[in-house]
Specification:
By secondary structure, the protein is of the alpha/beta class. It is built from nine helices and twelve strands. It has one domain: TIM Barrel (Alpha-Beta Barrel), CATH 3.20.20.150.
């Protein structure tokens, strides 16, 4: 029987803008890794060195390690200045090193409105290939996330990008809910054979194909249970990064970000328990 265990992380800025409140809830939920995207209302790309140092100290105080940087690189029009995008990426290399991770989430660019995305596949791949070469020099790993509206939104185009570049410094950030919202049906059934070998991290949220609304793991059509089974069989070494995009309504009818994260983490843990999968113990320094 496999000894493989899953490691949970979470996008803390979906809990609160304040970093301490993010980390306090993760600590309460026994989630020991943070997918760092923003704090104090500022995106990671806009935080200066002093603020990044504060992020590092605060994470250490709460016993939370950074699993990856949720950068916005590549979530921009493909016709924008590539040099500007590279400058942001270089900054992300510095931030990642300061926060003790090699993993940096990126995207595959927006084509012009109404354009055929296949027309821009070569251009996006060329940009991402150069970014990957820079990541290799920096000792970093880029995690390419699929998302609605980007060049890399479908299984086929994501595979075209990843297989063409074919580098250990460019891995795939699997997001089943984003596939559903991009019109992909049964993403794990239809996509794992092609994309599974490239997966470096998995974003955990669900979505319904009927209305594209987001749901907790197991409550939509993103085949999260099937994904967990595929990851387990592959002895996946990355993170399950919970990203609920708040949907939980409290007893007063108010949208609760903290409640949404709690609900989403518990939903994922229920799927893991149903499959009889276990979580890895936190690093010794975090106990």
């Amino acid at each position: 029987m496999s000894s493989m265990q899953f490691r949970l992380s979470a996008f803390g800025d979906e809990i609160d803008q304040d970093l301490s409140r993010q980390l306090q809830l993760l600590q309460d939920l026994n989630v020991y890794f943070l997918e760092f995207r923003s704090a104090w209302g500022k995106n990671v790309k806009d935080l200066d060195d002093q603020e990044i140092a504060l992020v590092s100290r605060t994470c250490q105080e709460y016993g939370i390690a950074v699993s990856g940087i949720g950068s916005p690189v590549g979530k921009t029009p493909i016709k924008n200045s590539f040099e500007t995008e590279l400058q942001v990426l270089q900054r992300m290399f510095v931030v990642a090193e300061k926060l003790g991770t090699q993993n940096i989430r990126i995207f595959s660019f927006y084509p012009p409105e109404g354009a055929d995305k296949d027309t821009y596949l070569d251009a996006a791949t060329s940009c991402l290939s150069y970014m990957t070469s820079q990541a290799e020099k920096a000792g970093m790993v880029l995690m390419l996330e699929n998302d609605e509206g980007l060049v890399g939104d479908t299984i086929e185009r994501c595979y075209a990008i990843l297989s063409t570049i074919n580098s250990p410094h460019l891995r795939f950030a699997w997001d089943g809910a984003n596939f559903v919202q991009s019109g992909v049906s049964d993403p794990t059934t239809n996509g794992w054979a092609k994309l599974g070998p490239f997966v470096g991290t998995a974003h955990i949220k669900d979505a319904r194909s009927a209305d594209h609304t987001r749901r907790a793991a197991g409550e939509g059509d993103a085949q999260i249970s099937e994904l967990l089974q595929a990851l387990y069989a592959a002895e996946f070494q990355g993170f399950l990064a919970v990203e609920p995009h708040p949907f939980w309504v409290d007893g007063q009818g108010e949208l609760s970000k903290a409640g949404g994260m709690t609900y989403a983490v518990n939903a994922l843990r229920k799927l893991l328990a149903d499959l009889q999968y276990t979580e890895a113990a936190p690093p010794l320094r975090q106990r």
